[in-house]
Amino acid sequence: MTDEPDAILRMENITKIYPNGIMANKGVNFSIAAGEIHGLVGENGAGKTTLMQILFGLNHPEEGKILLEGKEITIANPNAAIAHGIGMVHQHFMLVPSLSVAENLVLGVEPRKGVSLDLPEAIRTTEALSKKFNLKVDPRSAIRDLPVGTKQKVEILKALHRGARILILDEPTAVLTPQETDELFDELKLLKDQGNTIIFISHKLNEIKALCDRVTVMRAGKSQGVFAVADVTEQDISRLMVGRDVILRVEKSVAKPKKPVLKVQDLMVVNRFRKKAVDDISFTVRQGEILGIAGVEGNGQRELVEALTGLGLYASGDISIGGKDIKKLSIRGIRDLGTSHIPEDRMTYGCAADLSIEMNLLSYTHDHPEYNKNYFLMDINAINEVSNKLVEEYRILCSSPQQEVRRLSGGNIQKVVVAREFSSNPKLIISDQPTRGIDVGATEFIRKRLVTLRDEGCAVLLVSADLNEVMELSDSLIVMYGGKITAYIEDASSISEEALGLYMLGLESQGPEEIRRVCHD
Amino acid sequence: MTKSQRLFEVYRTGLVILISLLIAMVIILLVSEEPGEAMKLFLIGPLDSLRHIGNVLEMMVPLLFTGLAVSVMFSASQFNLGAEGAFFFGAIGAAFIAVNWNLPPVIHPTVAILWGGLIGSIFCGIPGLLKVKWGSSELVSSLMFNYIAYFFGLYLINYFLRDVNAGAMVSHRFVETSKLIKIIPKTRVHFGILIAAVMVVITAIFLFRTRWGYRIRVIGTNIRFARYSGINTDRAIILSQVIGGFIAGMGGSIELLGMYRRFEWQYLPGYGWTGVIVAILARNNPVYVPVAAFFLAYMRIGADIMSRSTDMPNEFVAIIQGIIIILIAATSFLSKQRHKMVVKEAMS
Ligand SMILES: Nc1ncnc2c1ncn2[C@@H]1O[C@H](COP(=O)(O)OP(=O)(O)O)[C@@H](O)[C@H]1O
Ligand SMILES: [Mg+2]
After folding, report:
1. Which residues of A touch B337 (CB under 8 A)?
2. Which residue's CA is the nearest one to ligand 1's atom 16?
3. Which residue on chain A is closest to B229 by alpha carbon?
4. With 80 as the cut, is the pLDDT of residue B295 above it?
5. Cβ neighbours of residue A235 closer than 8 Å, sequence gap 6 or more
6. How sure is the predictor about A1, in pLDDT bands with cuts at 50, 70 and 90?
7. Whose CA is closest to atom 2 on ligand 1?
């Protein structure tokens, strides 16, 4: 551990317990020095976001205090945080999609002309800031038309515009391509040179190494100490993070794909802004293969998944599963063809948080004969039995299957989702960000399961914004950009991150002939 | 819910009731010339004779039905307030059969009650249908429908069932075979209370042990999850409203056949509204409905007895009910204590 340099900001003995009983921070000490880039690492669920939300006034700790330049302060809400010069860029952006960059930037602190917004002034402000901090944005474009990397710049500018001197960035690189990440790092270093202090959250250790001066490691809600980045290796940090050596390497044999299960032909999906979100794409997923879809979020993946699962409509084209056209089928009808779906957002679609684990495990199968005693009554014993079995098999950490899902940690909630979706004998698994925001143990578990299912003959479509995941886990890859497929990589292990990044950014594209190879008969 | 949280909810509800009763006491102290007598009558009046105990049980019957009805509808997160209209309109349906038909005993009331239930289910089903077809708010449409039920119902009584020889606007007398028998001598407690008890059990089984009830509860907690899972949400929403309406319609018929000789309501009787309070107190759980219905019935009878022999008006029950609703609906009431409990649990 390093000696304390003069701390500009210090959090002492912070404990936070959420209403669901999860203790997200336990007596955490955290301090940052003026003008440094301070890394905050820890695996998903370690409590990083919680700690920073406390600093930004979005959460209130049960215990502990915050000192700014030696004086104790209370941060009741984000406005108070901003008044103290603390700004935060969240994991999920908080921008109004239909408004322009300039309008978003000044939201809440608008320059006015009479009662209305002085737009020219807002644009001038944006341009000036953009220049000063070398964060290039076009003040006039609407947020919804911007790529993720640019949205992030708007968020950073927004914080700076409100007078932030201490900038918290919560996993900013999770949504970026390698190229965008490099750009961000240059910008952050410039901000640091201009005297700002930055807290950079990540769980990618190479990024910490490349960018940060010091790093605080968190595990299971506790701080494991603070270190000068130069003094520690990635292995050291990793051990502190997880408590053991982990190599997130998926063990899998070469895929032996058989017949196609999912066939998508000339699919077009139009979103609510009347843009072609999915623009004339065709591909197949075969038994015994994992086809990955790489791409920056917001390039049509969500709309594609919604069309495939029946949650959303599609404008034209054909989708067939196991040889059956799904155009006229309900969601239930599509599921009955053997389709399982791990949704991108587990809290919105993946579970009913206020019902028990047991009830959540049954949402698709509840009317199958094995869970019903007769025409009227469900078979409680059979339900208990199978949920006990699943809880055990999927190692869901809970007090009992009757526990409410809300009370579980993120990783265990995802295991409930996965247990349900994997246990209904699927032929096709549509797996959308299956390990987003969950701990290493659960991630490992879910990835292994996907491979096992593949080996048993399942067709797996894997959508993931996590480059590592999509490259490690997929047998073949397609890249989506702007609603189109820009590349098909038959052997996912043959491509480098950088090359993939070029396709993801739309800077390069394969020819139609090459892309068509993803359609099999 | 963990055990301690369930206990906490019981504690919270108990505290709400206690606070509202305390406020009732304060009101009595402030308003009444004879507060001691008024309080005594209000609190223990319902227990001081068999007749009064009978009154509480009689009052419970309609509240049990509307409380169950609202619980089922609310379980699907549909804020259908049509229980009032369904109760009233179901009773009118039953009145037609009770006046015009000649059937053997037992069969006669059975047919009338089922008919009343059917009418109630159509009545509550329509706001559900409008909701799933056009997304119109079930809250608004069900309120409108209550007015339709009221005016249309009175019209039907007036033009088809009215006994012109009777002084008031009432129907002809019910055929004797249609009436529900009294089961406790010296009171008006009728067979309907047994039907209500059976309905409590059936409704609880329906919600917690059948696939339809399961779907209703899933929809009520997260409708997007229900849709994603392949549940036909439209169908389950309508089903919940139809069943709720059926129970309310049954309740109206039973109240009529158990307590009256003619149809003589000139106003909406208000049991549907009280049913909402019952359901809120019972947290939409049929198992708790009898407790909540008993409490409200007790309070109403207490106020009634008090108003008859003191200067306190019995309308003050409405104030107490209002306080109960506000406190229970206020999720932040006692939320600090709840959080403390969570913290304690997490620390241990
Ligand atoms: N609003 C919330 N309510 C309940 N539990 C939460 C909430 N936010 C986070 N948690 C839980 O707190 C723990 C820490 O979460 P978080 O601070 O988001 O971790 P990190 O950012 O390090 O991934 C996790 O177990 C998570 O499930
Ligand atoms: Mg986080």
Report:
1. none
2. A47
3. A364
4. yes
5. A245
6. very low
7. A18
